[in-house]
């Protein structure tokens, strides 16, 4: 079940009776934005353009300008927005700013992802190409399930968390709000990774990780805890 907060005013249906599409903007112009635009191309969203800093590389959509344009874009009828920023805290802050302006932040699920019909994907989440979300799992608002990441049954991924490419969660894993799992991370069943933790690339988590801790290695060991 996907949560989608886009306003009906930004939806339109083709004369041929095809599924409704939603016009949206993308907040972000970097490498992660390019990945998000690639995902959106497989959905029923139509991207009006990107907003943010001037892009340093190619984009698959028009660059509209900086964040000052957001109120005018909203007033023109584009009420859906995606935050295409990889940094978890920045994504959380920008999502709050969009909501304060009146934008909705829908979820975007790649047409090349596999999501169980019993899973729940909250608003603002990106599920990227090749990702899998298993039965009865819940992915919180604003999270990123990156390319080829795998979530097994009965997992919970907190709001604004980020599972890096190729990460794997076994069954009944809990990932806290804002946690970041690097490329190729593995987490064994019934394990809790606390809020705002960082798990280094290639690590294997075999025990609970306290909130705010950075762990690396096989098995993952703490190297730092935030004050």
Task: Describe the 3D structure.
The structure is a single chain. The chain has 227 residues and is an alpha/beta fold. 13% of the residues lie in helices and 29% in strands. The protein has helices at 31-40, 70-75, 88-101; strands at 11-12, 21-27, 45-51, 63-65, 80-83, 108-109, 114-115, 120-121, 126-127, 132-133, 138-139, 144-145, 150-151, 156-157, 162-163, 168-169, 174-175, 180-181, 186-187, 192-193, 198-199, 204-205, 213-216, 221-225. It has an eight-stranded mixed beta sheet, with helices on one face. Strands 7-10-13-16-19-22 form a six-stranded parallel beta sheet, with no helix packed on it. Strands 1, 2, 3, 4 and 5 form a five-stranded mixed beta sheet that branches. Strand 1 and strand 2 (21-27) form a beta hairpin. The N and C termini lie far apart (37 Å). The model is unreliable at 1-18 (pLDDT under 50).
Task: Quickly describe the structure.
The protein has 227 residues and is α/β, with parallel strands linked by helices. The protein has helices at residues 31-40, 70-75, 88-101; strands at 11-12, 21-27, 45-51, 63-65, 80-83, 108-109, 114-115, 120-121, 126-127, 132-133, 138-139, 144-145, 150-151, 156-157, 162-163, 168-169, 174-175, 180-181, 186-187, 192-193, 198-199, 204-205, 213-216, 221-225.
Q: Widest sheet: strand order?
A: 6-9-12-15-18-21-23-24
Mean pLDDT: 91
Shape: globular
Number of strands: 24
> How many strands, which pairing sense, and closed or not: the largest β-sheet?
8 strands, mixed
Question: In angstroms, what separates the terminal alpha carbons?
Answer: 37 Å
Structural class: alpha/beta
Percent of residues in helices comes to 10-25%
Please give the count of helices.
3
The poorly predicted ranges are: 1-18
Radius of gyration equals 17 Å
SSE sequence, one letter per element: EEHEEHEHEEEEEEEEEEEEEEEEEEE
Beta-strand percentage range: 25-35%
